[in-house]
Amino acid sequence: MRLIDIDWERDRLTVHSPKTKKYEGKESRVVPIFPELKPYLEAVWFAAEPGTEYVINRYRDTNSNLRTQLQRILKRAGLEPWPKLFQNLRSTRETELSAEYPIHVVCAWIGNSPRVAQAHYLQVTETDFQRAATTRGAECGAPAASQAAQNQAQPRSAVNRDDTHTGRNPLFGKGLRPLTANRGETLRMVVIPPAGLEPATPGLGNRCSIH
Q1: Any idea which of 30-44, 74-88, 142-156 has the lowest mean pLDDT?
Q2: What is the DSSP string of 101-113?
Q3: Comparing 99-108, 123-132, 150-159, which segment has the lowest mean pLDDT?
Q4: What's the predicted TM-score (pTM) here?
């Protein structure tokens, strides 16, 4: 990549691809200058001597072993090298981007096809598991604390309203009566049998007289 390939005005850069340049339209691609990369490009830009052409000059020799040098960098950083050093760096970045952007956009930036990305690059990460568990917990778990407090503070007169949010008909008027509940108690519903022709016998609650 050359310094003239950096478009500072639009925050984009052109990536040349010698491997695919034989295919029409595949000789290069334009990618955003991501915020994580921008400080390093700026440092190279301002440190470049007059007449400098390429962004990276130290490793332009075809005899340079980039893998060995990267392993040295990892050792100094106290990190364990991972399998397929460069391919997995590419895989990680494509996985990160696919979580934020449509796959066709990500593939245009990375330079592969959705089929190749899904078969060889996209990963299932620990973050995917954590987000799934959190999302499902919020959907299926108990009401949030604020909602529970709101329900607790609801006026008792509200129990006589229709449940319009769920579309259910009220149960009251069909032999069911709410019992008054004190704060912190659960509201219970009891079935009251219809009274007989005679007044209920004293001391027998809701039971009718058998005489």
Answers
A1: 142-156
A2: S-HHHHHHHHTS-
A3: 150-159
A4: 0.60
Q: DSSP 3-state assignment of 158? A: helix
Alpha helices, DSSP H, located in 99-197: 103-110, 114-116, 126-140, 145-152
Give the separation between CA 210 and CA 55, rounded to whole angstroms. Answer: 101
Structure tokens at 64: 């340079």
Which tokens is 7 given?
A: 């478009």
What are the pLDDT digits (tens) for 164-190?
444 444 444 444 444 444 545 544 544
Q: Could you tell me if 34 and 42 are in contact, meaning their C-beta atoms sit under 8 angstroms apart? A: no
Burial 187-203 (b: 16+ CB within 10 A, else e): eeeeeeeeeeeeeeeee
Phi then psi for residue 138, to 5 deg, are -70, -35
H/E stretch holding 47 reads helix 38-47
Residue keyed to tokens 């390429």: 54
> What tokens appear for 22 in the block?
């034989």
Percent of the chain residues topping a pLDDT of 70: 64
CA distances to 10, 111, 139 from 38, rounded to whole Å, are: 12, 20, 39
Q: Residues near 179 by Cβ (< 8 Å), separated by ≥ 6?
A: 187, 188, 189, 190
